[in-house]
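Render 3-hydroxyacyl-[acyl-carrier-protein] dehydratase FabZ in 3D.
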Amino acid sequence: MDAQEIMDLIPNRYPICYIDYVDEIKPGESIVATKNVTINESYFEGHFPGNPVMPGVLIIETLAQAASILILKSPEFLGKTAYLGSVKNAKFRQMVRPGDVLKLEIKMVKKRANMGIVETAALVDGKKACTAELMFIVEERTEKI
């Protein structure tokens, strides 16, 4: 999936649409997506001057966007919107810096009528930068994308 296909599926837009493309997806099972971390990201101006580091909360947001693509590509959730409900066991193992390529690996753990739970990992050069379990609430779409 390219950037336009992603924006057709999830409501996130500039400046907070972080997924550049989807490498592979198995609807209802797993997804691998990519975020290219560039120095022109606005948050690097303040986090931290002279030592740019991607904020942990934005790594989680990037994982959540990839996970929402997986969830919303599942047949039972097509045309709906996924909202982040909880973050469990988030661990930050290394800093993410400009020039890094974040590979986002998401696996579906559980699905119910209006929710999904996923295991996530953000990797840089094959090494885990962040892992977390995310839970989503899925509701009817109220906005038009």
